[in-house]
Design a protein that fits this description.
The chain contains nine helices and 14 strands. With 444 residues, the chain is an alpha+beta fold.
Length: 444
């Protein structure tokens, strides 16, 4: 609920932001239209033709009225002069260089350049540039004429002498135009800053809410899982006791062969291990942290005791060990680690009912030992799987709740290790070709 309100607030903020920008821009447009409506009558030079060029200059950029350093190509400017435009109050000119104050030149005269129309290149050769400031050429009665201006001295060193006064607009028009521009960018800056702060706080609140909801779901899931395992433990204790008692009776039979006695012994040991596991589930407070002194011997013994199961399920298991015979001790509870391996083996065999291949590798690193379990089954269910804390929260089998996988993740994390799983694919978007589970256990 809170997330929805925060998202609505974000949408409202965005709408207000663009609404204010549009409002200020509309005021700027009105000020610019008023200026251009006034230009045609107030210009002192070139009339409508120059007014059109000034209008194009104003519209050449989105928000800034920056002037070009040379006029339109149709108005030949054969000097280095730049054009300025002031209002009647002498407030402002429009140019990338800044602001200057001019009055209308006291002296200006026209000079005939050519009595007949000439191409631009020939015009350029006949125009002399010894005057201080030269305006654009214009045509009058078939003659090309240039207008020469006397520069107006100004009390600032910002500008050189090559400035030409083009014309005047009504008093206040430029001031209104640039005041709206200034207001626009101030509002944009303020809104951008406020929006950034608000969005950061909003996403921080959303992340915190999602974390709280995630923790709540984890707690509920943990309670359900513990309740289910406790119920299963109670229900399994009696059948296991009966199996153990029956095996003890069979073992006392004097006519039992040696192979039979070995099988019965294995049954009794597995039943006892299962009872220990159930006892630990029912009384977790009695469990003390345990360590495995020799992980390689533990793994070798595990696969030796699972040889019959592997053969029955038509699985081809390839086990690899690191070079050397050094003992590697890890922090892990032996019966829980055995349960994790049983769960991985069972998942693979059920995912590959017609048989398949399993590769199991033990690796040593300076700080941890890696157990890598890989099969060539159908993978973990595609790209739409739900993951949490690096572990899939659904079983990779067609049926099942993935309880064993979640328990495995909890146990490994309690030892200070980590559990990672991924689907192996033929290329980035290729078909699944198996599952890989990596279990890192801290060394002791």
């Amino acid at each position: 609920m809170s997330i929805s309100i925060q998202r609505i607030a974000l949408i409202v903020l965005i709408l207000v932001f663009f609404g204010l920008i549009f409002s200020v821009y509309s005021q700027y447009q009105i000020a610019r239209e008023n200026l251009n409506a006034n230009l045609g009558d107030s210009l002192t030079l070139e009339g409508e033709e120059l007014a059109e060029w000034i209008s194009q200059s104003l519209y050449s950029s989105f928000m800034f009225s920056a002037w070009r350093d040379s006029p339109d190509p149709e108005l030949f400017d054969l000097t280095a002069s730049r054009w300025i435009l002031v209002d009647q109050a002498g407030d402002l000119i429009v140019d990338t260089s800044g602001v200057a104050f001019y009055e209308f030149p006291d002296g200006a005269y026209d000079q005939i350049v050519a009595a007949e129309p000439l191409p631009p290149k020939q015009l350029q050769s006949v125009v002399t540039l010894n005057e201080t400031v030269v305006g654009p050429l214009f045509q009058e009665e078939g003659k090309f004429i240039k207008r020469v201006y006397v520069p107006v001295p100004i009390p600032t060193e910002v500008f050189g002498e090559n400035w030409v006064l083009v014309g005047q607009a009504g008093e206040g028009y430029f001031s209104d135009l640039f005041e709206q521009q200034k207001n626009f960018w101030w509002i944009v800056a303020a809104l951008t800053f406020a929006s950034t702060i608000f969005i950061l706080l909003l996403f921080r609140g959303i992340s915190r809410t999602e974390r709280l909801e995630q923790n709540l779901r984890d707690a509920e899931e943990r309670i359900q899982l513990e309740s289910l395992t406790s119920t299963l433990a109670h229900e399994l204790r009696n059948p296991l006791s009966i199996i153990q008692s029956t095996a003890e009776i069979i073992r006392r039979d004097e006519n039992l062969s040696e192979d039979g006695r070995d099988l019965v012994k294995d049954i009794i040991e597995e039943v006892q291990r299962s009872q220990d596991v159930l006892s630990h589930h029912l009384h977790p407070e009695r469990r003390s942290p345990e360590e495995i002194d020799d992980l390689r011997s533990f793994v070798e013994d595990y696969w030796k005791r699972r040889a019959a199961l592997v053969e029955t399920r038509r699985l081809n298991v390839d086990v690899k060990y690191p070079e050397g015979d050094g003992r590697v001790g890890v922090r892990a509870t032996p019966d829980q680690l055995e349960q994790i391996l049983d769960n991985l083996l069972r998942n693979s065999s059920e995912a590959m009912p017609k048989g398949g291949s399993i590769q199991f590798e033990l690796r040593n690193t300076p700080e941890e030992a890696l157990l890598i379990f890989t099969d060539n089954g159908p993978g973990l269910g595609g790209f739409g799987a739900v993951w949490r804390d690096g572990w899939r929260m659904e079983s990779s089998k067609a049926e099942g709740r993935g309880i064993g996988l979640r328990l495995a993740n909890r146990w490994v994390k309690s030892w200070g290790g980590r559990l990672e799983a991924k689907t192996l694919r033929s290329g980035l978007w290729g078909k699944p070709k198996g599952t890989e589970v990596r279990m890192a256990l801290p060394k002791v």
